[in-house]
Amino acid sequence: EVQLLESGGGLVQPGGSLRLSCAASGFTFSSYAMSWVRQAPGKGLEWVSAISGSGGSTYYADSVKGRFTISRDNSKNTLYLQMNSLRAEDTAVYYCAKNDGVVPAAGYGMDVWGQGTTVTVSS
Amino acid sequence: QSVLTQPPSVSEAPRQRVTISCSGSSSNIGNNAVNWYQQLPGKAPKLLIYYDDLLPSGVSDRFSGSKSGTSASLAISGLQSEDEADYYCAAWDDSLNGYVFGTGTKVTVL
Question: For B75, which DSSP code?
């Protein structure tokens, strides 16, 4: 069964850091781009970041560029999101998603999603 | 603020047809494939449409997608109560070098 399981969410103070992980199973992890998507309470979906299957190319939304870093360990079938300089507006449920293509720009979309992990930035 | 614009809500009676529009620009919809997602209350999103008009395996053929120029549409025919959800269009944006979601549309079955 194809599955994504996020972890690492929690409560953090403004300016703090957090690292999210997403453990993948049931598919050849390195063959697919992966993405992080977030949803603030009561709001719509916001794409955060993506990484190619090899890890050689990364992409970021302007809202997180310079603060967040996406990475992957294909030997561990795990995706990461390092979040630094966190702000109140980063409070959201963070989903990891599998892109059905090697690069995120392919039109296949995100066909597998995790259940999400909640990040709350508050003092 | 999203670069893809959708109506906030649409509603229709059971067994009827609804259409959700998604307006973009030449840097996203006009030059890249459109995807559509369904998000049921409290759940993770689900891919409904890829490459403008293709259905993933297991998605009901009551859903259909289309695209013309810089706009796209999702149609739901034979509306059912289980279709009550939020729907999002999305596409890669060449200018932003990133993926963008639409503003989202809440579908209500009357």
Answer: E
